[in-house]
Amino acid sequence: MTIYYKTVEKKLNEGRIALGLMVVLTIFLLAIIYLAQINATIAGTYQLGDYQKKLTLIQQENQHLLVALAKEQSLPFLGEKVKNMNMVAVDKIEYLNDLAGQMAVKK
After folding, report:
1. How far, in Å, CA of 62 to CA of 56, rounded?
2. Closest CA to 87 of 78, 96, 95
3. Nearest alpha carbon to residue 77 among 65, 69, 88
4. What whole-number distance in Å separates Cα of residue 52 and Cα of residue 59?
5. What SS3 state is found at 91?
6. 29: containing domain
7. Splitting the chain (107 residues) into consecutive groups of 10 residues, what average pLDDT does each group show?
8. Residue 93 covered by a domain
9. What's the number of domains the chain is made of?
């Protein structure tokens, strides 16, 4: 009977070793998966920060362009452009009279 108990005890020890090894390997695998997820999250955070910086730069450029557009559409700027184009000044302005609701019909 002692041989039977030694065999059973040996198998139990082998099972405990195998179970311990499986636990260690499982913990190692979970740690690797956890680190991969953390790495992906950090990379996404840096990428988001880069996009926010680009967005800020584009918004600032947009504001500068709007200011430049407003300056170029201002009356003093347009007056200078007209003077530089050597155009003839208008003496008298005539407007079309309203023809009291008359319309032309295409035939």
Report:
1. 10
2. 78
3. 69
4. 10
5. coil
6. 2-84
7. 69 86 97 97 94 97 94 82 77 70 67
8. no
9. 1
Q: What angle do CA 96, 98, 103 make, to 5 degrees?
A: 110
Cα–Cα distance, 99 to 106 (Å, whole number) = 17
CA 107, distance to chain mean position in Å, is 57
CB 22 within 8 Å of CB 16? no
Residue 57 lies in a domain: yes
Q: Is 87 exposed, middle or buried (0-12, 13-18, 19+ CB in 10 A)?
A: exposed
Q: Per the structure block, which two tokens stand in for 63?
A: 């504001």
* Token pair in block for residue 51: 């996009």
Q: At residue 89, what is the residue type?
A: A
